[in-house]
Amino acid sequence: MTNHNQKKNNILKNLICISTIALLIVGIIEVEVQAADNKHISVQKRIVSLKLGQATNINYTANQNNDVEYYSNNRMVATIDPNGNIIGNMIGSTTVVGKDKGGDVLETVVIVYRDLLEPLSEISEPRYTLENGVYTNKSAKNTNDALLMFTGDLMCQTRQQEAGKTEDGTYVFNDSFNMVKDIFSKADFVAGNLESLLSNTSPYMSEEKELGGQPHCNGPSTYLDALKYAGFDALVNSNNHIADDGEMGILQTLDLLEQYKFAYTGSFRDKDEQRFIIVDVNGIKIALMSYSEDFNEKDITLDEDIKEVMINRYTKEAIEKDVKDAKAMGAEYIIAYNHWGEEYTNDYNEDQAKSAEEMANAGVDFIIGSHPHALQTFEVIKTRDNRKVPVVYSLGNFISHQYKPVTKDNFILTLNLKRDKEGKVYLADEGYIPCYVFEEYDSIPYLVTPISKDFNGGIENSELNESYMRIQDVVNATMPEITSYSQLKK
C-alpha cells in the first residue's frame, strides 16, 4: 500500500518491528525471555508476543553486571518494572527499551494479543483437494473446457473491520460479497490476491493502522469466512504486506488458510515447498504462481536464513525456474500474479513492462498484476518464440476501505480455456465484469457491486455510471465486456 518509490530511509524511520537495526551494542547484550507458562509466549527477531493479562520477563544481560534501566514507550499496552517483568495491559504493541550504565541500548517490540476467533460457521469442504501435488475437483468431468475468474486485491482494512465488528467481539464481512457470490458460482475456479495478514498475535489494522509510518495490514481470521462465502477456491498472498508482522504473522496466516481449506501460494514455511500450485480444472492442468517486487522493507524483520524461503520475491531467475518445474509436473497453462507498480494510477510503468516481458518469455501464459489499488490496462506481449501472452497490469482493489474513486473501480477477469483437437490447451476468450465498491449501500458496508444491471439486480445510480466510464477508459475496448449471466458458461 505504500508508495513504491518511497526512499528507503523514510521507510525505515521509526519502524518499530525491526527496533535497533545494528543493536548498537555490537553483540555484547543478549535477550532472555522467561515465563512461568511459556506456551503463550512467542519470540521472533526483536519481537515478543504475549496474551492479554499475561506476565513475562525480559532480561537484557551483558558480560559485565551492569544495571539496566527499563521503560515502555506505551504503558497502556504493556508495562515493565525495574527487574524486566512485563505485563500485557491492552491489545496492541509497544517498544520496551533497556539501557545500561554504559549507554548501550536494546529495543524489543512487545505485542499483546487476543485469542484466535472461532469460525463463524462450520468450514465447508473445498471443491478442490490436493492429491499427488495437484488440486483436483473429484466431482468435475474432464470436459477440457474451463471457466476461470480472478480478482485483484482483497483488503481487510480499518474501516472494514470497524464496520464488521459485532457486539460479541467477532467480525463479519460476508455481506460485502452478496452481489458477486452468484457470479463466482458460475466459474470452475476462482482466485484472488489476499492482501492482509490474519494474525491474532498482532494488532488488527483497526487497532494499529500503521507500524513505523507504514500501513499495517492485519485483520481478523473471520475474513476467511467471507471469502469462503464468496466462493474463492484459491488465494495468492505474495505482496508488500506479507512481512508486516514478521515470521509469526506469516505462519499464522498460512495455518488459517489451511484451516479454512483454501488452496494458496505466495508465501511458504520451508525451502522444500513447491513455489506454485497446480489445479486440474475439468481436465486442464493450470499452474498458478504469485510474486512480489516490494515488501515495504519489512522483509528485514525475517531472519536471513528464512527470508527468501518464506516470501516469494520476483526475479527473472525465479520465474524461469518455477515455470520449468511446473511444466515438468504437467502444467499445460501457467498464470502468474506479480505485485508491482505505482499506487493510485491507471498507468503502468517501464519496470512493470520489463518484468512482464521477462515473465512472458519465461513461459507464463497469462500475467495478472496487483498492488496499484487501481485498474491498469490490458495488452498482449509477443514473445521470442512467437507466443502471444496477455497481461492485465492491475485488477485494482476488489474490496478495500479506500475512498478515492480510482481505488473503488475494479473488474472480475474471466478466462475460458479449451483443448484443441491436437490436445493443446489454449485461451479461447477472455472478458471482464466491471465492479464498484460502495462504501455503503442498502445498509451494507463496502459492498462489491457489479455494474451491469443483470448482475446487480437492477441497481443504477450516478456512482455506478461514473465508475463505469472510468473503467471503460482504462480497458479501452481491449477485451470483451461481460454484462449478463447468459455470456458465462453454465
UniProtKB/TrEMBL annotation:
Matches recorded under InterPro entries: Big_2 (IPR003343), Capsule_synth_CapA (IPR019079), CW_Biosynth-Accessory (IPR052169), Invasin/intimin_cell_adhesion (IPR008964), Metallo-depent_PP-like (IPR029052)
Domain Capsule synthesis protein CapA intervals: 147-402
A Pfam family per the record: Big_2
CDD domains in the record: MPP_CapA
Family assignment from sequence similarity: Belongs to the CapA family.
Protein name: Capsule synthesis protein CapA domain-containing protein
Organism of provenance: Terrisporobacter mayombei
